[in-house]
Amino acid sequence: MALDKVKTPSAVNKIKQLLKDKPEHVGVKVGVRTRGCNGLSYTLEYTKTKGDSDEEVVQDGVRVFIEKKAQLTLLGTEMDYVEDKLSSEFVFNNPNIKGTCGCGESFNI
């Protein structure tokens, strides 16, 4: 399983809230893209179907699909949702990260 701890209750609740108004979507898909100064950034999008090579993780009724390209990168990662006075965002707590850049959107494994 790529997302070992999968999602915090905060992330589960936010995904449920987001999908509530999108009955045609069955869950969200997590991936990685080449971007930023250290190489990769996480992506998150609504999905209507499970891809052939996607890994499916279900927690508390929430379905998260992980693209094949992202499965090894996300090994051991916990998905969280955090809010403060200035922002709200999904955060991926990855214990395998060895470095980050100042832009805050990429990582290096």
TrEMBL record:
It holds the Pfam family Fe-S_biosyn. Residues 8-105 form the Core domain. One of its GO terms (cellular component) is mitochondrion. One of its GO terms (molecular function) is 2 iron, 2 sulfur cluster binding. Transmembrane segments: none annotated. GO terms for biological process: iron-sulfur cluster assembly. InterPro entries: ATAP, ATAP_core_dom, Fe-S_cluster_asmbl/transfer, FeS_cluster_insertion_CS, HesB-like_dom_sf. Belongs to the HesB/IscA family. Involved in the maturation of mitochondrial 4Fe-4S proteins functioning late in the iron-sulfur cluster assembly pathway. Probably involved in the binding of an intermediate of Fe/S cluster assembly. Interacts with CRY2, but not with CRY1 (in vitro). This is Iron-sulfur cluster assembly 1 homolog, mitochondrial. It comes from Physeter macrocephalus (Sperm whale). The gene is ISCA1.
